[in-house]
Amino acid sequence: MLMRTDPFRELDRLAQQLMGPGTWSKPSAMPMDAYRDGDEYVVAFDLPGVSADAIDIDVERNMLTVKAERRPVAKGDDVQMELSERPLGVFSRQIVLADTLDTEHIQADYDAGVLTLRIPIAERAKPRKISIGVGSGRKEISG
């Protein structure tokens, strides 16, 4: 038998029980990090215990939607649950992407419970050098 020693963990568990598991109509939020790495944006979602086939990634215009479902582990008839703290159900996150990102070339990798999306910065959004012509009044854009 397992013993609980952290009183705050019990409060977290109680709050999760009151909110209930996420459903497709009312999913729970998933934690994420987002940062720029050179010429791409990286977004990492924590999805421990979720199989890759239970993850759905959609992009419509500039709205990125990630949905995932953590299903219960198959149990036999002789199994008696002693403690269940890992949340089950549906998790979702929506992010509005800037127009400067190339949504046609998003790469997704899933490793060790972390879904990592790499979104390149569009060529039109990268800095360009503008040269000035002397005497002709003409400017050229070099990219």
TrEMBL record:
InterPro entries hit by this protein: A-crystallin/Hsp20_dom (IPR002068), HSP20-like_chaperone (IPR008978), Small_HSP (IPR031107)
Domain SHSP: 23-135
Superkingdom as given in the UniProt entry: Bacteria
CDD domains, per database record: ACD_sHsps-like
Gene3D superfamilies assigned to the protein according to its UniProt record, in alphabetical order: 2.60.40.790
Family, as annotated: Belongs to the small heat shock protein (HSP20) family.
PANTHER family, A to Z: HEAT-SHOCK PROTEIN 20 FAMILY MEMBER (PTHR11527)
This protein's name: Hsp20/alpha crystallin family protein
